[in-house]
């Protein structure tokens, strides 16, 4: 059909399969920034429902900083602290899965750590099958290894799942030339290349994650997860947030 044909639906997603990266902050009450908020998980479930309704296969990697941040516990051995952080991500994944159940969305949680009484172990082929069945797959426990962030887990799982884009939900609506809270002259990038983001040290993701996405030619979209409808607009390819590309 020709471009602009009125018989075509307006809501045609730009991507067929995506991976959403959520930090622990997305799960916490706004007042405290700590713990799991029912309102927050319900909001996330609604935002995900809008994307699922478009027919987009959706995977999610969750952080755990709203419960435990290993780097803020210097008295604890770093490896042990990182494993504790992985367990926190499992709690968030279960909370999100339950919120989606209440919203009528089928989901599965897979963990890089074996906790089979609670969640499934991560199995790539099974995860892909779930996505093809229209289920949302939530990945917990990062990569299963200490010293690697959930940003790196998102880049890794996105590559393994054959996602077309990694979408990172943050507190701000994109990547800026400077901290917009401190510099009123800061401007949002609509698009920026990986090389430029790395050269300018823009902290889109940690260096390992950013380099992996660049090498795999896997673009990253950064947007405000707390902005209603923003996730849907990213998936539709609208001007929302910042696109980091090769």
Within CATH, the superfamily of one domain carries the name Acetylglutamate kinase-like
Q: Approximately how much helix is present in the residues?
A: 25-40%
- Give average pLDDT, whole number: 93
Radius of gyration equals 18 Å
The end-to-end distance, rounded to whole angstroms, is 30 Å
Instruction: Please trace the helix and strand order, writing H or E for each element.
Output: EHEHEEHEHEEHHEHE
CATH fold-level label of one domain: Carbamate kinase
Number of strands: 9
Class by SSE composition: alpha/beta
Quick one: biggest sheet? 9 strands, mixed
Largest sheet: spatial strand order: 4-3-5-2-1-6-8-9-7
Low-pLDDT runs of 5+ residues are: 1-8
Count of alpha/pi helices: 7
What is the architecture of one domain at the second tier of CATH?
A: 3-Layer(aba) Sandwich
* Strand residue percentage: 15-25%
In the CATH scheme, the class of one domain would be Alpha Beta
Principal-axis shape equals: globular
Description:
- The chain has 246 residues and is of the alpha/beta class.
- It has a domain at 17-157 and 222-241: Carbamate kinase.
- The chain is built from seven helices and nine strands.
- It has helices spanning 38-52, 78-102, 124-132, 150-161, 194-199, 207-215, 230-235, and strands spanning 17-22, 57-62, 107-111, 120-121, 136-140, 165-170, 191-193, 220-224, 242-245.
- Strands 4-3-5-2-1-6-8-9-7 form a nine-stranded mixed sheet, sandwiched between helices.
- Strand 1 (17-22), helix 1 and strand 2 (57-62) form a beta-alpha-beta unit.
- Helix 1 packs across helix 2.
- The longest helix has 25 residues, at 78-102.
- The two termini are 30 Å apart.
- Residues 1-8 have low confidence and may be disordered.
